[in-house]
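Q: How would the structure tokens look for this protein?
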Amino acid sequence: MPGIYGYVKTNAQDNKLVYMTEKLFYNKNFVKDEDFNDDEFQASHIHLGNMKKDNKSFVRNGVYVSVEGEQYDYKYCNFEELIYNSYIRGNLEDFLNKLDGYFNAVIYDSKIKKVFLISDRYGMRMLYYYYKDGNFAFSGEVKGLLGLDFVESTIDESQINCFLDLGYLLEDNTWHKYIKLIRPATLMEFDIIGKSLTQKYYWKWSEIKPQNIAFCKAVDTLGELFIEAVRKRFDPSERIGISLSGGLDSRAILAAINKLYPDYEGYAYTFGIPGCDDITIAKQCITITKWRHEEFHFTSNNWLVPRIEKVWLTDGMLSIMHMHGGEFLDTVSQNVNFNLNGYAGDVIAGGGWFDRLPTDKRATKLNLRSFYKQYVYRCYI
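A: Here is the predicted structure in token form.
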């Protein structure tokens, strides 16, 4: 998803944003916001229009704010305004530290000539940036940065073996040496006058302290927290669906919604080969709800070709072996505007780690080696 994008100008006459837009506006269903432009900075936002209902830019008292994504704590508040108010009041870090959301954001303060980039707590909504020789730019997709003539697109050959072995790149790395992914829970600051870049974490995992709690109580509490998390993210008035596999994560989401809204008639879908466990289990789950369920089957005719285009869409950073379901996006998008899935649920509450990592110890490069092999040295621990 293109999301927010922009750059710091090298001179007041610069108008390079148009080249970024050309790279990023590749879908007829995209909505593009009004461009922001002054002598120092140009930026815009390309989105689907399902969370932001207009194409207006947020600018107030010389401060530009743009957000890609959503937050779940202040349901009826404008997200840009929430960030603006916390920034003006000087409590931005405290606000972000407690915020539940899936987003990234940019703040440009024309009075002090600074640009701030923000990632959500887990870095789930990706944002890339370029910083070299005093030049600074950002984009929700790498291809947007490659539209700028000052961006040096040198390939980082050290990433090749990692991608081939693991199927993905680690931490903030991309295929390009000077293009990086903003880290999770990060507040990044670029000083336009001094051409300096600094960043800091506004939240860390270590803030979650161990608790002396009985196992059964922990199980009950986790269940309550999970249902509350789903409640915050689900609105029966919106077209929300579930990519329902046979796994624990998506089944738990379906169960939580069904508990909250037992009469809701939703849309769920499952992909796989005919008769596979995922489809069989999903069909069993659906029978105890009022949801509609659709099956999508992989065949030798539809598996590979649709994934080729998605190599470009994902900037080459997702293996075609992990693009399951992309073949059926056109059909799915006709039924839902939002998809709930259990991505990374296994990290927090699933069983996939139990036989590979000690659950009572913090992550270290030694115990993470079973996942990241010899590339574990690239992990920020």
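The chain has a mean pLDDT of 92.

DSSP finds twelve helices and 17 strands in the chain.

Upvote if useful.
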